[in-house]
Design brief:
The complex is a heterodimer of chains A (279) and B (355). Chain A is mostly helical and 279 residues long. Helix content of chain A is 76%, strand content 0%. In chain A, 34% of the residues are buried. With 355 residues, chain B is of the alpha+beta class. A six-stranded mixed β-sheet of chain B has the order 6-7-8-3-9-10, with helices on both faces. The chains are: A mainly alpha (279), B alpha+beta (355). Chains A and B meet through α7 and α8 of A and β6 and α2 of B.
C-alpha cells in the first residue's frame, strides 16, 4: 500500500453504493411522498385523485390552523429573542470569567440537551402547575397556562443550544482582542459592542435560527406546557392525526418542513459567514 | 525630572503563585527600556500592570507622577503593542488604526487624517483598506505599532513585538523601532526573552527571574558587570567557575587553586567567577606573561570549533571545561585537540558574582 485512496474491490464497492442509495431513499422517500400527496385531490391521505392546490387554500382559510400558526410564530419569536440574549450572556460568562462553581454551571447548562423531551415536558408540567398554584393562592390571581408558559418552556431548552453555538465561536477568539480594545480607550461595553459582538455575530445568528427552528418544531414539551388557546401548529397537526386524518395535514406539514429547512440553511450560512479563524 | 513610569514595591500574586515579587523600577522619559528574562519570569505581568490589564496585589505604579494602580486600561495614557498584534480581524487597517481616536471621540475628519499620517509613517500607505488577514506578519506588526502610536501615548508598551517575525525581518524591525523611538522621543518599554535583541535596542535593561528584578543597567553594565550568577549566565556566553572568597583580592577555586580576583564579598562567601570566552587568551603551556601569572590556569584542548572569524576552544582544566574564543588569525597560532595549553586573562576582565 503506497498511501492515497484505497481502491475497493468490485463487490465491496457496489455493496457500499447500494447501502448509500438505500439510506438516502429511506431519508427522502417519506418526504417526497408527503409533498406528492399534499397536491392530491382526494379526501383520503394516501390516494391520488388528480392535482389540486385545494389543501393549501384550506390551510389559508382554516381558522384553527391560522390561529395555531400565529401562536407558533409568536412563541418562536419571543423564545428566540430571550434565549439568544440569555444564551449569549451565559456563553460570555462561562468562557470569559473564572468564578466559583464555573464548572458546575457549565455542566448544568448542557443538561437540557441531554434530558429526554418527555422528561423535560413532565418537569415543565409539574413546575408550571405548581408555581401557578403558588402564585395564584398568594396573590389572589387566576393565571393559567398559555402562550407565556409555552414560550418559557421553549426558552428553557433553547438557551443551551444558543450558548453552545456562541461558545464555539468565542473559544476561537482570543481574549487579547478585548484587551486591545480596552487598551485603546474602549470601555468594557464599547469593547463588547465594537469588537466582541461583531466577531461572535455569526454564532449569535446561528444560535438564534437554531432556537427558532427548535421552537417551531417542538411538540412534546409544548403539549405539556400549553393551555387553552395556546395550541401551536405542530401540536395542532398532532391533534389532527388523532382525530382522523385529512390531507390538510399533508399541506400543513409541507409548509412546516419548508420553513424548517429554510431556517436550518440560514443558520448554517450564518455560522459559515466570516467563518475563518477569529484570532 | 519625573519618571515616565515609577514602580514601587509592586507584587502580583495569582492565587498561590507570586508572579512579580516586590519590584522597584524607574523608567525615564524618552528611554528605550527592556524587561528581559526567560518565560515565566514576570516580565509580561509587569508590563500588563503598567498597561492596566492586571492590577498589582501590593505596591504603587505611577505614570508621570500620577498613581494608576487600579485604573482600568482605557483611563491610562499608555498604549500597548501586543505579542500577536491583536489586530481586529473584522476591521480594515484604517479602522484598526483609528480605533483609539474614535473611542476618545476625536472629530472624525481629524481621526482619519491623523490615522492616515500614521499609516504613512509606518510605510503602509495605500494599504489602509485591507483587512489584517491580507497583510504579511511584518505589515501586521506595523499596523499594531501605528494603532498604538496614533494615540500619542506617554509610554508605549511592547510585548515581545518581534517574536513572531523571522530573523531577517526581526533585525530590520529592530533598527526601525529604535529610530522610530528616537524620532518620537516617547519612552518604549519592551518585553523580550531574547538577550541579543535587548542589548541591541535598549538604553537600559532590567533582568528578571522568578518574579524578581535581578539587575537594572545599561547593556554594557549588564554584560560586563553582572551582579549575580543568573544574570551572568543569561546574558551572553560565559564561563562560571565556582570559588570561595579568601580576601579582598583573592579567591580559591574548588580544587584549591588560588587566583587573584578582587571581590566586594566577605571572605568565606561562595561565589562564581564569570569569564567571557572572548576575554581569555590562549597559548602554549608555560607561555603565560609574568603579569598574568596569578590570573591563569593550565589545561589541554578538548575540542576545536572553527567559526570563520574566530575559533572556539573547549579547554579541559581538571574539573571544568573552559570555553575560550580565539581569533582565527591573531598571532597565527592555532591549537589542535590534545594540545597542552595555558589560558590567562586580564585582571579587569574577570568578574566575581554572588551565587
Amino acid at each position: 500500500m503506497s498511501g492515497g485512496v484505497r481502491q475497493l474491490r468490485g463487490g465491496t464497492r457496489s455493496a457500499l453504493s447500494l447501502n448509500a442509495a438505500l439510506v438516502y431513499l429511506f431519508f427522502y422517500a417519506p418526504i417526497l411522498l408527503l409533498i406528492f400527496y399534499s397536491f392530491s385531490d382526494d379526501d383520503l391521505v394516501g390516494r391520488w385523485g388528480g392535482f389540486t392546490l385545494d389543501w393549501y387554500r384550506a390551510f389559508g382559510r382554516n381558522d384553527e390552523v391560522q390561529s395555531a400558526l400565529s401562536v407558533s410564530i409568536r412563541v418562536a419569536l419571543i423564545s428566540t429573542v430571550v434565549s439568544v440574549v440569555l444564551g449569549t450572556m451565559a456563553a460570555l460568562a462561562l468562557e470569559r470569567y473564572r468564578f466559583r462553581g464555573n464548572r458546575i454551571f457549565d455542566a448544568l447548562l448542557y443538561l437540557p440537551v441531554i434530558v429526554p423531551d418527555v422528561t423535560m415536558a413532565v418537569m415543565m408540567l409539574l413546575f408550571f402547575t405548581w408555581s401557578i398554584d403558588v402564585v395564584n393562592t398568594s396573590f389572589g390571581l387566576s393565571l393559567g397556562k398559555g402562550i407565556s408558559t409555552v414560550a418559557l418552556s421553549h426558552i428553557a431548552f433553547s438557551i443551551s443550544f444558543v450558548s453552545i453555538v456562541v461558545r464555539a465561536r468565542l473559544a476561537g477568539m482570543t481574549q487579547t482582542l478585548e484587551e486591545a480594545a480596552q487598551d485603546l480607550y474602549a470601555s468594557q461595553w464599547q469593547a463588547f459592542r465594537h469588537v466582541t459582538l461583531p466577531l461572535i455575530m455569526p454564532g449569535v445568528i446561528g444560535g438564534g435560527l437554531l432556537a427558532l427552528t427548535l421552537s417551531l418544531d417542538d411538540v412534546v414539551i409544548t403539549q405539556f406546557a400549553a393551555g387553552p388557546g395556546s395550541t401551536t401548529l405542530p401540536v395542532y397537526v398532532f391533534g389532527l392525526i388523532r382525530r382522523g386524518v385529512s390531507p390538510l395535514i399533508n399541506a400543513v406539514s409541507v409548509v412546516m418542513l419548508a420553513a424548517s429547512v429554510l431556517l436550518v440553511l440560514l443558520s448554517l450560512l450564518a455560522q459559515r459567514a466570516r467563518g475563518g479563524s477569529v484570532t | 525630572m519625573t519618571a515616565a513610569v515609577e514602580i514601587r514595591g509592586v507584587t502580583k500574586r495569582f492565587d498561590d503563585v507570586v508572579a512579580v515579587d516586590s519590584v522597584d523600577l524607574e523608567i525615564a522619559d524618552g528611554e528605550f527600556f527592556a524587561l528581559l528574562g526567560p518565560s515565566g519570569c514576570g516580565k509580561t505581568t509587569t508590563l500588563r500592570m503598567i498597561a492596566g490589564l492586571e492590577f498589582p496585589t501590593e505596591g504603587s505604579i505611577r505614570i508621570f507622577g500620577e498613581e494608576v494602580g487600579t485604573l482600568p486600561p482605557n483611563k491610562r495614557p499608555v498604549n500597548t503593542v501586543f505579542q500577536n498584534y491583536a489586530l481586529f480581524p473584522h476591521m480594515s487597517v484604517l479602522d484598526n488604526v483609528s480605533f483609539g481616536l474614535r473611542m476618545k471621540k476625536v472629530d472624525k475628519t481629524d481621526a482619519r487624517a491623523k490615522s492616515m499620517k500614521m499609516i504613512d509613517l509606518v510605510q503602509l500607505g495605500g494599504m489602509e483598506g485591507r483587512k489584517p488577514s491580507q497583510l504579511s506578519g511584518g505589515q501586521q506588526q506595523r499596523v499594531a505599532l501605528a494603532r498604538a502610536l496614533v494615540n500619542e501615548p506617554k509610554v508605549l508598551l511592547l510585548d515581545e513585538p518581534l517574536g513572531a517575525l523571522d530573523l531577517k525581518l526581526r533585525q530590520e524591525m529592530q533598527t526601525e523601532l529604535k529610530s522610530l523611538q528616537r524620532e518620537l522621543g516617547v519612552s518604549f518599554v519592551f518585553v523580550t526573552h531574547d538577550q541579543e535583541e535587548a542589548m541591541a535596542m535598549s538604553d537600559r535593561i532590567a533582568v528578571m527571574h522568578d518574579g524578581q528584578l535581578l539587575q537594572v543597567g545599561s547593556p554594557e553594565e549588564i554584560y560586563e558587570r553582572p551582579t549575580n550568577r543568573f544574570v551572568a549566565d543569561f546574558i551572553g556566553q560565559t564561563n562560571l567557575i565556582d570559588a570561595t572568597v579568601e580576601d579582598d583580592d583573592h579567591i580559591i577555586l574548588t580544587n584549591g587553586t588560588r587566583l587573584r580576583a578582587p571581590s566586594p564579598h566577605e571572605p568565606g562567601t561562595s561565589v562564581a567567577m564569570s569569564l567571557r570566552p572572548e576575554a581569555i587568551s590562549i597559548g602554549p603551556r608555560g607561555s603565560v606573561p609574568d603579569e598574568h601569572s596569578a590570573t591563569s590556569l593550565e589545561g589541554a584542548v578538548a575540542s576545536v570549533t572553527y567559526l570563520g572569524h574566530a575559533v572556539d576552544y573547549s579547554v579541559k582544566i581538571g574539573w571544568i571545561d573552559l570555553e575560550v574564543r580565539g581569533g582565527a588569525t591573531a598571532g597565527g597560532q592555532r591549537f589542535e585537540a590534545g594540545d597542552e595549553v595555558s589560558v590567562w586573562w586580564d585582571r579587569t576582565s574577570d568578574w566575581v558574582v554572588a551565587d
